[in-house]
Amino acid sequence: MIDLHTHSTCSDGTETPRQLINNALIHGLTTIALTDHDSIAGWSQATGALRGTLEVVLGAEISCLTLDGVSVHMLGLLFDGTNPEMIRMLADTRDSRVPRMVKMIELLNAAGYEITMEDIEAVKPVGATLGRPHLADALVAKKYISSRDEAFKGLLNNDSPYYVAHMAPTPEVAIAQIRKAGGVAVIAHPFASHRGEILDASNFDALVAAGLNAIEVDHRDHSASERGMLRTIARDLDLVITGSSDYHGTGKLNALGENSTDPGEWARLESLADARRVVKL
Question: What is the pTM assigned to this prediction?
Fold first, then answer.
């Protein structure tokens, strides 16, 4: 079983990279990708925990914004983690998350939600990439809501009056940088309409021109019809089709390995990187 999209406490997951690897072994996965938001901080711990026949794909989920303000997530897999330009792009994106969070706090405070950055830091794992899930956890701790899931369906949804975008590369810039760093680019959950604004079929030509390699088709946030449309787009544009859990531990309902990637599709995707970077014993 191949799961190419998971998160640890180095971003907004609830399991450390080591715990994530252990969980993958328990669930019988053969290949797992660690793709924390705008961060590669968990790579070393994940590879250090590796054992048996499990293979680890190192990557990151890069936060992007189109020129007209649509939020897009790009999975970069198998890139060179020492590439200076890649490291700089990830750092710049992480840094922009702090002023964004301050503004969201201000908007929530004005609406009567008493929340502070200190409240968020109290629930955020040390060193984790700051994000809305940590704001959700703080709101849960203050008993304004009952879960992260409730937060993302309401207060913290992309269409919420409390949502604030942060500075981020365009999807095309992120794809180009992933490819320059030797990796492969997979657009994550592009038709997940409940998250807010989404892409449409006309957007993919520009992404392919920038170097897009694959589309994450099988994802719990895609309906059956959306999966069908994305499969057609992928086949028409000769893109690899992936399936993933987008696992966050107890932070989301998503179960590890609930969607997976066909081994043939994964072999094709891996071959598009400029070097063999899958980690295994």
Answer: 0.91
DSSP letter at 78 equals: S
9 in Cβ contact with 125 (< 8 Å)? yes
CA triple 272-41-101, angle to 5 deg: 110
Q: Is residue 74 part of a domain?
A: yes
78-106 residue pLDDT tens? 999 999 999 999 999 999 999 999 999 99
User: Are both 110 and 86 inside the same structural domain?
Assistant: no
Number of domains in the chain: 2
Q: How far apart are the first and last CA of the chain?
A: 18
- Is 158 within a domain? no
pLDDT < 70 stretches in the chain? 194-197
CA-nearest of 27, 25, 44, 33 to 6 is 33
CB neighbours (10 Å) of residue 112? 7
Tokens of 149: 């899931």
CATH number at residue 212: 3.20.20.140
Tell the burial category of 28 from Cβ atoms under 10 Å away from its Cβ (0-12, 13-18, 19+): exposed
